[in-house]
């Protein structure tokens, strides 16, 4: 699959071949969904917890006498039916971690990239770099590339000027290519890949 290579001014400066085994496969939606669920589950801390009746700090003495009041018989006020009592069957700390074979994780990434390529939402740049962190420079670059919605910019390595230039833009995210994941690919409309970052992606998924 051939695609134009553009510069930050939006001008075509060449072409590049996108590997069909990465950007041209039949997307496997079920694997993408499984990878997304796994990623979201692995983000959860699982530290939620409520106190049971044995953990509530209240008096353990009987509330009122057993007979003669005309009311229902009760013992401790820690019972879940009382305000301030324990919670019955409440959440407890647990692990939400899910596992997924590496081949399936890579298939999910290739499927997501192929979907973007089919939608023509992949933009390849010859290079991108700013002399200083400037939000205006990032906005001008996106306008030149006709990106009017959300976008993710892949970088081959850490670049503070580019990363800080995108910090104030809520619909733009920078990500190092070796941290590519299904969630970000599905969340953002456009994928902007400089040629050196494209080499990293092909090395990982090839």
Account of the 3D structure:
The chain is of the alpha/beta class. It folds into 2 domains: 2-45 and 96-205, Ribosomal protein L4/L1 (Ribosomal Protein L4, Chain: A), CATH 3.40.1370.10; 50-90, no CATH class. It has helices at residues 20-23, 29-43, 102-118, 135-144, 160-165, 182-187, 195-205, and strands at 2-6, 12-17, 122-125, 151-155, 172-176, 190-194. A 6-stranded mixed β-sheet has the order 2-1-3-6-4-5. The model has no long low-confidence stretch (mean pLDDT 94).
Number of strands: 6
Helix content: 25-40%
Radius of gyration: 27 Å
End-to-end span in angstroms? 15 Å
CATH architecture of the largest domain: 3-Layer(aba) Sandwich
The main sheet orders its strands as 2-1-3-6-4-5
Core attributes:
206 residues, alpha/beta, Ribosomal Protein L4, Chain: A, 2 domains, 7 helices, 15% strand
Strand and helix layout:
Elements: E1 2-6, E2 12-17, H1 20-23, H2 29-43, H3 102-118, E3 122-125, H4 135-144, E4 151-155, H5 160-165, E5 172-176, H6 182-187, E6 190-194, H7 195-205
Parallel strand pairs: 1-3, 3-6, 4-5, 4-6
Antiparallel strand pairs: 1-2
Helix pairs in contact: 2-3
Summarize this, please?
With 206 residues, this protein is of the alpha/beta class. It folds into two domains: 2-45 and 96-205, Ribosomal protein L4/L1 (Ribosomal Protein L4, Chain: A, 3-Layer(aba) Sandwich), CATH 3.40.1370; 50-90, no CATH class. 33% of the residues lie in helices and 15% in strands.
